[in-house]
Design brief:
With 139 residues, the protein is of the alpha+beta class. It folds into 2 domains: 4-87, F0F1 ATP synthase delta/epsilon subunit, N-terminal (ATP Synthase, domain 1), CATH 2.60.15.10; 90-138. Helices cover 32% and strands 40% of the residues. The strands form 2 sheets. It has a 5-stranded mixed sheet with strand order 2-1-9-8-5, with no helix packed on it. Strands 4-3-6-7-10 form a 5-stranded antiparallel sheet. A hairpin with a 2-residue loop joins strand 3 (22-27) and strand 4 (30-34). The longest helix is centred in the last third of the chain and has 27 residues, at 112-138. The chain is elongated, with a radius of gyration of 16 Å.
Length: 139
């Protein structure tokens, strides 16, 4: 069985490092599926799940990413994510609370810079909430 080394890294920490049979994620131009010996590739990735199929099992690890860059080499996949959260760490109540706080802060923001920052935060939280809903439907 052939495998490919996978690293998923955010600005804060290394989220996943290990071997995989298959990796799927939301690329800029659509869904990307990566097997061992894939042709070299660099692409932007959209918010969504990186799905990592573990070797010798049907287990799939999922990591939510807020966007970033993927680099693919024949034996190695590196995902550099703006922000990444392990699926088991995603919490609906915490996300809803963060969305409410961001909306409140946005209603009081006065500068364009603050508004832009809060809009980006709200977009990330909305993508995270959609991912939580998707996870809930599949479990």
């Amino acid at each position: 069985m052939s495998t490919i080394k996978v690293d998923v890294v955010s600005a804060e920490e290394q989220i996943f490092s290990g071997d995989a049979e298959f990796v799927a994620l939301p690329g800029e131009a659509g869904e990307l599926g990566i097997l061992p010996q894939h042709a070299p590739l660099i692409s932007l990735i959209k918010p969504g799940f990186v799905r990592i199929t573990m070797p010798g099992s049907k287990e799939v690890k999922q990591v939510f990413v807020a966007g970033g860059v993927i680099e693919v080499q024949p034996q190695h996949v590196t995902v550099l994510a703006d922000t990444a959260i392990r699926s088991e760490e995603m919490d609906r109540a915490k996300t809803e609370k963060a969305m409410a706080a961001a909306r409140e802060a946005r209603s009081k923001a006065t500068s364009e810079a603050d508004l832009a920052k809060l809009d980006a935060q709200l977009a990330f939280l909305a993508a995270q909430m959609a991912a939580i809903e998707k996870l809930k439907r599949h479990h």
